[in-house]
Amino acid sequence: MNFTRKRSLRFLIPLILLVGLVIFLSLRWKVWFSNLPEVSYTPSDTIDRLTLTPGQDICHDVTVSWRAGSEPAKSWVVYTSDSMPEIHLPAMASRVESRGGVDVFYSAHLKGLDNQREYKIQVYTDGCSNTDSLTIAFPHPDSTLRLMYLGDLQDIDLAEAKKKLDSISRYYLSTDLYLQVGDLIERPMNSYWDLVYRSVGETLMKRRFVATPGNHEVIKGFRKKIDPRWKAQFNYPLNGPAGQEGLSYYIDHPHCRIVSLNSNHLDRPLELYRQLSWLDDVLGSASQPFLIVMMHHSVKPVRGTRSHPIMYSLVRPILERHKVDLVLAGHDHAYARTTHPDKDAYRSTTPVYLISSFSGKCYENGFSPIFDRLGSGTAFYSLIELTDRSLDFSTYTIDQQLTDHFRLLRPDKAEGQGRVPSRFEELGLDLPEYLLFDQFAGNEKGRKKRAAYQEALKKRLSNKH
């Protein structure tokens, strides 16, 4: 009898585990493997999706990209400055097949330009109507470098997207680079690419756009991949690890090295090894005063119980070993800032981990004490100003309210000394935190979650005072 019972249990336990696995996979199937169908489309014979991206040398190189029709045609760029003669540069064509149609994208790399000049750029494709010219000036190596950091956009409403852009319009002319940390679109579909270019394309993407891919740019499946239109539109330097060229990359300015890490493919052992090795190398070889790393998924998430074990256990040690200054992330649709505690000196130091969102979609934030600053329920943007000795960081709500402010200072370096962490200065202790999230369900469960959130908020406010 006992033998029969043991034998039954031997088969019953695996069966229960198998049934549980099937139920779990069925619940997660759409999230992990299913894509909404994309409506068929045919691109027009008009030049559109004009995009400027920096080359590896921010001060001298730029790439211009555009889309035109569905069949390759002769294309070129004409650029000039002041009294210099026009220069004609042939463009490379890239035919991209998506789930909804076929696009042809073009790109031309302009290298070694004079950062003392202002250039006019015009693009041409045979048989396609023309566009207005672009005007571009380069940041000077000795001047203050001005960056704007934006989290997820992921808009589905054109009017709402343009309203948010109006709030940052006063910074357009003074911003050298826009850093966007993924989830630029809601889904990898032509309709959403159209929406984002109609809303932000006329401003952000014509002023040197620096992006990292997010999970909403991913086509799901057993072998998930970044939407091929992402790489065709955003032609970044091909200095990334094998298999991730143009998705993971770095760009240089005398004040900083900016590294973009594609965090969507870190669940594959080979990709993980290649990207971690590459990240270690490009951070270790940098000679600039400041190091900035941008990626979609955060090391220390702010959304409830969410966690990223690979980011925390494997990526974080590399960032901290190389004393990275800023780690910019998104994904959580809220704002958070965490400093790295210096246990020996009992003070905050770098890396400074940041999460931000520029989206109308908001998620509930957690209240872990590791977060120095929090924000939720609205969109945020951050301004970063760098010299060779200091980095000033300010975050605003969409309503122009300053909600975070700190400064990093580079210490004097002794001869033969390795990289030392920047000195952190807190400048925002008296600034209000905008914790406005209130998108709870109207049922009993939602009411309980709202009550728990309000209680946690009261506790945080009382601890701050």
UniProtKB/TrEMBL annotation:
InterPro entries: Calcineurin-like_PHP (IPR004843), Metallo-depent_PP-like (IPR029052), PAPs-like (IPR039331). Pfam families: Metallophos. Residues 146-335 form the Calcineurin-like phosphoesterase domain. GO terms for molecular function: acid phosphatase activity. It comes from the Bacteria. Keywords: Signal. The keyword RNA-binding does not apply. The keyword Signal applies. PANTHER family: ACID PHOSPHATASE RELATED (PTHR22953), PURPLE ACID PHOSPHATASE (PTHR22953:SF153). This is Purple acid phosphatase. It comes from Porphyromonas crevioricanis JCM 15906.
